[in-house]
Amino acid sequence: MKKIAIIVLLLASGVTMAQKKRILSGDFKNLKGITEFNLVFDYTDLKVDKFETEEAFLEDKMKKREEKGTAEDFKKSWFSDREERYEPKFIESFNKRFDGEIKVDKKLSSAKYTVKIQTLWIYPGYNVGVVRQSSKLNAIIKIVEIGNPDNILLSVGYEKVLGKGAAGFDYNSGYRISEAYAKLAKEFAAELKKVNK
């Protein structure tokens, strides 16, 4: 029984160690009392898995799909997944944790602060039925005052945020990646809950 408890503890610590959070500037305490945030997503200079650029990733994936005639469909869905999957998933995951007390949304004109999510790196993962890998992402979340963008309340980097869901039936890369954004929102919301207790 003692061996089982140790194994469970080691596995749990491995999961928590896989994801890292690092404060780059500011403090979560600076966000205390703020009830709404305008949300901006930035994919500039995004890197994908082991490729030098996003363009190199797309070129490789499209080349593999040319014979099937699905190359352009892949490229189109790769970009449309941002607005159709990743961003709504982040918003939904964050907002459901606060029941309206604190909220984020795109184009939230009443907000005095902006949360900018800059995605730096994505590992799309895969699922071929018998073998699967969850998606991961690295991102920086930066909160600035809209009227004074030089006033950075917080900048925090997240590494290897794991996206998994659908009990292993996540065959679509867009779905897998959206789950990483849901997890990112959950982690960010958890810190806000702590400072707003």
Automatic annotation (TrEMBL):
Keywords: Signal. It comes from the Bacteria. Residues 1-18 form the signal peptide. This is DUF4410 domain-containing protein. It comes from Flavobacterium enshiense DK69.
